[in-house]
Amino acid sequence: MKVGIDPDRSGHGGGIMGIRLRAGYFVPLLVLMVGTACAPIWAPIDEKTPRPFPMTTLEMTMDLPTGWMSSYYAPAAGYFFFTVHGSELEEIWIRRWPKTRIVKGTNRNLVGPMTIQEMANLSIDSRRLDDGVGAFEVVSSRPATLDGRDCYRLDYRYRNQIGLPKRTVEYGCPVGAWFYRFEFNAPRQFYFDRRLEDFERMTRTIHFTTKGA
Amino acid sequence: MTGRIGSKSKSPADGAAAAAGRRSPAVFVLLFLLVSGCAYVPLEPFGSERTARTLDPDERHLWKESRRLQHEIEISGLLFEDEALDRYLARVLERVSPPELSTALVEPRVRVISDVNIHGYSFANGMIYIHTALLSRMANESQLATLLSRELAHVIDRHALRASRDKKAQADTLAWIGVGASVVQGGGNYKLLAQAASISSLAGFHYLLETAADEKGLAILAAAGYDVREAPKFFRMTIDHLAEVHSQGVWGWAPFSPPVQMTARIAGYEKLIASQYGDSRATRRQPIADPPAFQRKVHRATLRQTELELAAGLFVSAESSARRATESDPRDPEALVLFGRALVGQRSKPLPGRDLPSIRKVRAAFESALQLDPRHAVATRELGMSFYRKTGSTRGRKATVEALRRFRRYLRIAPAAEDADYVRGYIAELEAESR
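^ Those are the sequences you sent over. The predicted structure of the assembly is below.
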């Protein structure tokens, strides 16, 4: 059974660059290509997942939350994304960016002498102005420690673009030239309380391996 | 007529004429296409003949879509809630609403949205939204009436429907707002705006429709007894605002209307006013609220706008908004606190060519707020922060003492404040430093 190149039909009139697929193989291959390109591929987090999990693109390690799914392609894009039932119901985002980058919507960055509270306030400002964020309300903002480093812990509520009440807990940590953000976001009703401890447990295992920090 | 198609003439002149004649159908077709492409055949306006009960099928769909989006806006928590302001806006809207709207059973409404970007727009069903940014920058009721009259002109002449029928115009509109949304730096609810732009006046209509709205809007404004001379001033303010935003290093900001178009609109208004409303003084009536009363009515919206500008890092704009708020209500400590915060912001992000506000001026703002309300928690904390932040390489002994005093007082006033843990941390640090 030949897949892909059909030598009998290659050459003149044999398709693009002489490669022509038989229709019987072409359709499943097309479906596979479209499917893998469009659909997120999830990797389950279970007992086989290494502990601590090396997150080389972010220069850190931590224990991933068991029972969640990890977006397979996210690390290649420079972040990690976890969920159980889909992003509308619960999501954890782990990202970092250089302190020199303008924080979305705020016309400011994290360079210069800033207190941890001022960094938290910058994140609040960014969220307050964010797309589809209405009725924004800070529940608490307090200093926190992750891996022995000074960070902030923010807890805020808002309504998304379809009016769904959501709640977010976010940690922010300046580490060297980088700013790390760990974020858990879920609908206020049921899902937030149900999965918050998974997130908190995960943050307690964070270890930064950032160069120069 | 020489040169008709099929002419047998052989002379050079006749030949040229014949050639022209052969081209003429193509020319006519081309001209027809060009003219029909540019011309906007007006729809029958709302009135006794065309009412909300006799909508075309696609118009019914447009109204339904408008209601859906309005519902989304209203449940998303983006509306600025101020009942007294809403009542006042409704009264101004009622005053400018021409009788043909009620005849047509169209009930215009107006609400305010908390948004840092200057915008005001209407939907086909008469719903008008004004952003806090735009409302807080208006100087008086005539300027508010200018916006409302113009949006009502769009509604009466069914411009949203006209634009939705013009597929190309709609595609252009969406493309424009798409670009705006992708480059915007200033924050704001751009997904919502992008949706609204497709079925409202937000992104602007074809220039012929906009020009028609200018004329009709001005007529509505004059008929309601407002000072039409305020209209060009209002539109000029939006250009000045955009320049102010740009001067603060924010370039990807969707304008109320591009400055070139707005300049042309202002020129058009001035021409119209000079030619048709030269003696409008005779028909002018007292506004519902005189300028000071108008500023008081929009005072809370101005405070909200200042907060949004602070969040967006537009500290010069925030200073300007806070100053207006201190003028509209000199007894409001909140306005002074926001004014002080705008100065702090400017000190943290200096702009080239602009003098840095002195720390003395910053402290004076918070102290003034505390004179009005000695137990104002945020003013107390911010005054403490003004001493806590080092103004040089070290913090002086006096600054440490003052910061400690203010922070301790803050915790006494607001022991359960959301940021109390941070302040306890500052106190611990200062105490360790002063030992």
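The mean pLDDT of chain A is 84. The longest strand of chain A covers residues 134-146.

Shout if you want it in another format.
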